[in-house]
Design goal:
CATH superfamily of the largest domain: SPOUT methyltransferase, trefoil knot domain
Structural class: alpha/beta
Number of domains: 2
Helix content: 25-40%
Largest sheet: 5 strands, parallel
CATH topology of the largest domain: Alpha/beta knot
Number of strands: 10
CATH architecture of the largest domain: 3-Layer(aba) Sandwich
Strand order of the largest sheet: 2-1-6-5-8
Shape: elongated
Order of helices and strands: EHHEEEHEHEEEHHEEHH
Bound molecules: adenine
CATH class of the largest domain: Alpha Beta
Length: about 230
């Protein structure tokens, strides 16, 4: 799967994408991430990408022409990518949306900066996504969140596909059961006996119950959201 990112700060993507499972998947050729420097498409000698807002007000607004030119250039190279604008005003990102996006052959992600983006950019994309109800200074970190969450769902990226079925939000709305490893006792806290029993049917039932309890205590809001 391919990710094409339009950003003013391509360098922000380098170390995070080299590390861990995403880095390995890129090396193995299962995922491909290309950054496209928005500055290259800036206007005039200064490669201007922003300007003052019409109607007044503080801060700068990203102009539409450089973003349009960048989108057109990426599209000419790789037609048919699903185009996403990262913005706090978008649809809130969750595991179900990550799964739907992972079924697409490629995404184009546009990371905004400054105080805002000219409204006319919205008509040039297929979807707007927010990673949560808080404001960051730019769409770069949100873009990386989407690449990581979507990329790890692409077949072959995770070593063990079974772990995907069991982790939190695998069904869209349940937290994962509690996990333990060695030692059997740590600072007075013992691993629950059932996990040492070897009785796999009982272990499975215990885990399901724990996941249900944990979800209802910690995230009662999730209970009516189960999707599959
Ligand atoms: N850009 C700034 N804040 C954002 C957020 N919460 N989600 C997506 N893009 C953003």
């Amino acid at each position: 799967m391919e990710f094409h990112v339009i950003t003013l700060f391509p360098e922000m993507f380098e170390p995070p994408l080299r590390a861990g499972m995403i880095g390995r998947a890129i090396e193995a050729g299962i995922l491909k991430v290309r950054t496209h420097a928005l500055r290259q498409f800036g206007l005039g000698n200064y490669r201007q990408v922003d300007d003052t807002p019409y109607g007044g007000g503080s801060g700068m607004v990203m102009r539409p022409e450089p973003i349009a030119a960048a989108i057109d250039a990426v599209e000419a190279e790789r037609p048919g990518l699903w185009k996403i604008l990262m913005t706090p005003q978008g649809e809130v990102f969750d595991q179900a949306l990550a799964r739907r996006l992972s079924e697409r052959p490629g995404l184009m992600l546009i990371a905004g900066r400054y105080e805002g983006i000219d409204e006319r950019v919205r008509s040039m994309v297929d979807q707007e996504i927010s990673i949560g109800d808080y404001v960051l200074s730019g769409g770069e970190l949100p873009t990386m969140v989407v690449i990581e969450a979507v990329g790890r769902l692409v077949p072959g990226v995770l070593g063990n596909p079974e772990s995907l079925a069991e982790e939190s939000f695998a069904d869209g709305a349940t937290l994962e059961y509690p996990q333990y490893t060695r030692p059997e006792e740590f600072r007075g806290a013992r691993v629950p006996d059932i996990l040492l029993s070897g009785d796999h049917a009982k272990i499975r039932a215990w885990r399901e119950e724990q996941a249900r309890l944990r979800t209802s205590r910690r995230r009662p809001d999730l209970q009516n959201r189960r999707k599959s």
